[in-house]
Structures are given as structure tokens and as C-alpha cells.
Amino acid sequence: MKSIKRLLLFCLLCSCFSGRTFAATVQHFDFTVKAAIILPFSEAESRSRMVEYYKGFLMAVDSLKRTGVSIDLYVYDSGGQNASLLPVLQHKELGDMDVIFGPLYPKHIKPLADFAKAHSIRLVIPFTSKDNEVFNNPYVYRINTPQSYLYSEIYQHFAREFTGCNIVIWNSGGQQIDYEFTRGIRLLPQRPYTVRILEEGDIAADMIKNAFSTTQTNIVIPTSNSNIALKKLFANLTATF
Prior knowledge:
Elements: H1 2-17, E1 31-39, H2 47-65, E2 69-77, H3 86-89, E3 99-101, H4 106-118, E4 122-125, H5 133-136, E5 140-142, H6 147-161, E6 166-170, H7 179-187, E7 194-198, H8 205-211, E8 218-222, H9 227-240
Parallel strand pairs: 1-2, 1-3, 3-4, 4-5, 6-7, 6-8
Helix pairs in contact: 1-2, 8-9
């Protein structure tokens, strides 16, 4: 919770002072910031995480108020990942915000980023690291490191750590959250390891055995981290070996 508070406080301060002129010796500020939070508070799957974020946000707001900064806070429910943001964006007051925090779901980023740019509002994306709007829109800030940067370092470490190993990538079907990561492992130039691919339908014992090496250390990487996919993977490996 404290880390969330510090992070939000930093983002709010950036939005407060960006474009403003003030003396470095001033310790007490006197202006109002209009901030909005757009997150899926009504979704059961993400509710506890969103509430924790909101509590941290309120702590950051309280800290700013002690310096004399007033915060007009507006909170909106974005709905689920398949819901449209249009009803939220139609609120007239939203166009007057200084900063917007959200959304959670990747599908909502583009329309919210376009809205922020059209109204010259700073948009802070607090969770995802996969979207590239931050590279194209000067009003978008992303808290998490872009995966394109992060993966570059990870691939180098991966190559050093698993030199000489046999990497078995299991395309487990469904929502393949780690597909881009495993794609980079496959396409890494001059990779110091071998790569074998197992598709979801390759459940025959001989197919699985052929993908594994008897002379190298085998590293299995599924393309999905869902419980269903992992249970299926463990069941197939147990039945084969």
C-alpha cells in the first residue's frame, strides 16, 4: 500500500507542476487539480485489486492536500474488458480533467488515450506494460516498463542462463499471455540453445518425448499461465514420463 501511495503521489505531483512556474523555495501550494480514476470497480475478478489501488490513491491525495494542493477527484467504473468506454467518456466534466488514471484493460487504452490527447489531458496508465500508445501520444504516461524494453534485457539474461539447454515451448492454446515472450526466445539470433515447439494437440507420448532431449537440460515454457493450461501440461508430462 505504501508503494502505491508513493507512486501515485509522484504521478500527481508531475501532473500538478508540469507546465507551471513556481519558486523552488515555496513549501505550500495553492491550486486545484482535477483528477479522474477510470477502473473496473464492479468486476468481481479485479475488484480487490482496484480497491487497493484506490485506497493508495486516497492516501496520496491526502498527502498532497497537506501541502495546500486541492484535489477534485472523480471516479468512474469502466466495466468489464468487453464493455464500451463511450458512456464514461460522454460525461461532460471528464473533458476538464488535468489528469486521468486508468484504464485496466488493453481494449480501453486506445479510446481513452485518444480522448486525453483531444482534450490535452495527461493519462497515466497504471497497470499494463504491453500497449505502445506511450510511444505515439505525448499525453500518455505508463508506470510499468514497456515490454519491448524489458524483454530485451530478459532475452540477454535468458541466453546466458540457459546456454546449451533444450527449450520446449508449449503452445497451450486459449489466452496465450506469454506468446510474445516465447516468440522472442524462438527468434533470438545466434541463440545458444535449441528450441522445440509442442502444439496443444501434440499430446501423444512419442511427440512429447521427441521434443525433449536426453542429453541436454530441458526447460519447458508454456505460452499461457492459466491454471487450466498448467494442469493440462503437468498431466501430459506425468503421463509421458
